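Methyltransferase
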Amino acid sequence: MEDTIYKMFYDAPIGKMIIVSNGVSLIEIDHVNHEELMTSNPD
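Predicted structure tokens:
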């Protein structure tokens, strides 16, 4: 079976979140801590 790779780019005032799902999850956050991103709910 082929591995399906999909990228989700989320741009928010708090920073940028990049999630790559292909067995590996990568999250890049700018101008904000990882904990703050989890506790924040930007719509």
